[in-house]
Automatic annotation (TrEMBL):
InterPro entries: GAF, GAF-like_dom_sf, OmpR/PhoB-type_DNA-bd
UniProt name for this protein: GAF domain-containing protein
Species of provenance: Streptomyces viridosporus T7A
Keywords annotated in UniProt: DNA-binding
Record domain OmpR/PhoB-type: where: 244-310
Amino acid sequence: MTDPWVALEPGADPAERVRVLHRAHETFTEAGTVPRPVRGVVADSWRRSARAGVHPDGTADIELTDSDLGAFRAEHPLAHVMPLFRELMGTFASDGQHLLAVCDAHGRLLWVEGHPSTLRQAGRMNFVPGARWAESAVGTNAPGTAVAVGRPVQVFAAEHFVRRVQPWTCAAAPVHDPRTGRLLGAVDITGGDGLAHPHSLGFVQAVARAAESQLALLAPGRPAAGGPGLTALGRDRAVLTADGRRIRLSRRHSEILVLLARYPDGLTGDELLCALYEDESVPPVTLRAELARLRQVLGPGLLASRPYRLAAPLESDIAVVERRLAAGAVTTALAAYTGPLLPASRAPAVVRLRHRLADGLRAALIARSDADLLADWAHAPWGEEDLDVWRALAASRPTASNRARLAALEAELAAPDGWARPEGR
């Protein structure tokens, strides 16, 4: 076989390959060994599935329903390219009695569309919107494995780890944010054995690339109404996008705009002084000078006074995270959270907002108990020493490495000559 990511080489007999794969699957589930001719990508996936505790007779759990699912989908970046997916794949799916499916970066199915009878059959194995099809949840499958390995993949018949999925064949390709490279999810075509053809893999890969191209046309950080936008998470100096300009602000100007965006009705000079300066002896003239310089940077018309306020709504990445959290869309809230708010800032009001935002998000992650989401936080620079999250992760996914990391953190916290790290910081 020339391409290890394609399920069947040209000329292979699908029926014979199915028989061989069934025997190989039984060998693996009974003895833990993977015989030939199982592809390397499938063998690796089977091993990951077994380590994750997936049972061959298991099924997918439905995690999002009704209003939660609606809010989750509405906030997800791939919602912007669903019309494109339908245009390129919808007719192919319906005419071929296949399904078009789109999942997020953690394998949750957000959309499943296609031929009505195929939808009914897929529903019997919970291949439905809101169900979690991550590899760690239901084993080897095209959308789950595509997001696990970060590249297009086909899964044919008994290559699926869970037995009730083995009558199906699917091909999926990951979709990335074209600006940051962050994995957004995957687009998938699911149906019968005919999808094992190499063309189906090339098809979903081309669709994924088209989606990334369309996403690239969206202005970074641009609010829906076309107004100015502020990016302040994960950076010491915020970036303002306004009137086609991209302005990297000073640290103090970043703090001021974060606070004015937070309080659209405005703040008095005294309120801004208290919010910005730890030293209560800072004279008002210092603040007025900063505001005068900021007005020059912004240009006319954006910064008003008496009280100090923004003359136009300013969308911020902080507000995006807060809205998604309020809607219960924890995964997309985490996707929008690119790091702590202005991490070098010591302005009292910014510090409070930084902690409030991070604590709200991590509390939602812990309450959700989703191992993939917890792992994303725990392995980020700001989560490496987050004891509460590591405890939740070790409980949700008790691997040796997770337990070892938790034990090391707890030992460090308990050391008599060590420093006591506040939990969650």
